Each structure stands twice: as structure tokens, then as C-alpha cells.
Amino acid sequence: MSFDLHTHSTASDGTEPPAHVVAEAARAGVAGLALTDHDSSAGWAEARAEALKQGLAFIPGMEVTSKTANVSVHMLSYLHDPEHPGMMEINAAARGGRMERAKRICDRLSEDFPVTWELVLEHIRADTSIGRPHLADALVAAGVVSSRSEAFNKYLHRGTKYFVDQENPHPVDVVQRIRAAGGVPIIAHAMAGARGGTLSRAELEELVDAGLCGVEVYHRDNPEPGRQLLLDLAARHDLIITGSSDYHGVRGKPNLLGENTTEAEQVVRILELGAGSPAVGPLPS
After folding, report:
1. Are 110 and 138 in contact (CB under 8 A)?
2. pLDDT tens digits for 182-225?
3. Which structural domain, as residue segments, surrounds residue 126?
4. First and final CA of the chain: distance in angstroms?
5. What is the CATH number of the domain that holds 144?
6. Is residue 102 assigned to a domain?
7. Is the N or the C terminus of the chain less surrounded, counting Cβ atoms within 10 Å?
């Protein structure tokens, strides 16, 4: 049994509704999946219902953006209580920050391209956690670029005049809040240097001390030396080891559902630790 524990839907920056993501996971042949939209649990109910229909295991999750002084850190949270005060606080702050950042980027883009805030809003749902991919969609709709990837490569990455940074909580704070909410924190694509800086070994050890439960090792953006570093860290501290696609839909990213997966025994460890929200469907034991 294999599980894909990192996927996104239109509840954040994915291009497919939650139910469609689950149906695609079934077609990809995985035994179960986690929906991990950015700073949002809005897609859980729809994904859960479709998973039960498809006979898949469903693990509720979320991806929380955090930041050290120099490095953006994405933390996957599984089985947390979304109504825990600590999680509600950082989610509300993140969603507000995302909205303000998107508006500022849009203002900068509009100086050079036919991109308006109204055009951006055409590409999100009412409950969407907005992000740069939606600005990329607006650039595609305006005929400036042909794809999200081209938009990021040309205009939306750090270093361009359109980029705007966002304030985010420290990853130690995020790990502690996830644990307090009954969740299982696992750091996502921690060695993805192409995305920007990566944490040092000492910083990773600090997260373990704070309560980090696992590491996403098998992700297309983690190079082999980085994977080995994460495997060594996991062995030293008996951490959970996961693999995931980081699927964003066929129009979102080239990542394919099930291209990297998590073994059943690692999923069992997540299920044993999580206490905030239940997983459903045919779960491994």
C-alpha cells in the first residue's frame, strides 16, 4: 500500500477541486492521500466524501508556511484540530498576509501588464487561500505568459521587481502549535535548494527538539545529497519518513500524483500520533 501525503486543490493553489484531486489519486493507484492545502482545511469535507466514495484512505492535512531569518520553511501538518486556537490564529494571520501580499504584487504587475485584481479574483473560490499561483493564472489569462511555470520563471520569483515577501511565523512556533492541536508536523521538501535557502543541520535539530515528527524525504525537489541528510536525521531521531508528489493539478505543476509515495508503516505512525482530526477510509494498521 502506498500513500501520497502532499496534494493541493482549489482550496489553495491547486487547479482542481478537492473531489477531483481524490478521484485522480484513485486513478493513479494510491491507497490513500492527504489533502494539504496552504493554510486551509476548507477542502477536507469534500475530499473526505470523495475518498469514501472511491474507497481510499483520507488523511486531513495542511501546509503551513513559516520562516526563519533567511529561509522559507513549509511545514506539513496531519490530523490536527483546525479549530484549535493556536492553529486558527496562525491560519488567519497567514490568509490575511497572503491577501495583502497578492494585492501588492498585483499592483506591481499592473504597471506593466493588463492584470487587475478583478482578473485575479476570477481564478479563486470564495474559500481559497490565495497565493502567487493565482497571479500566475491571471498572467496566463491576460496572454502575458502561456503557463504558471513561465509566469514564475519570468515574473513571480524572488529577485524580480514584482516579488513581495510575506511575514510568517518561525518554524519552531509552527511545530509547537501543530503538536498542541493534536497534529503531526512533518517538514516538506526541506532540502529544495532551488526554491531558495535551506535549513542547516543545527536548525533541523532545533525543530526536532521542538517536536518535529518527520521529514518529507522523497520529493522531486530534494536532491540526492539532501535526501541522504534527511535520512540520517530521521535515523538519528527515529523520525517518520514520507514521500509525496506535491500535486497541484495537471495545469498547476508537472508533479504527478503518486510519483513519490509513503509506505504504509510510516502512515501508521502518523495515525498513532495524530489526535486532532480523524482519518477515514481503509487505513493501514
Report:
1. no
2. 999 999 999 998 777 899 999 999 999 999 999 999 999 999 99
3. 92-156
4. 11
5. 1.10.150.650
6. yes
7. C
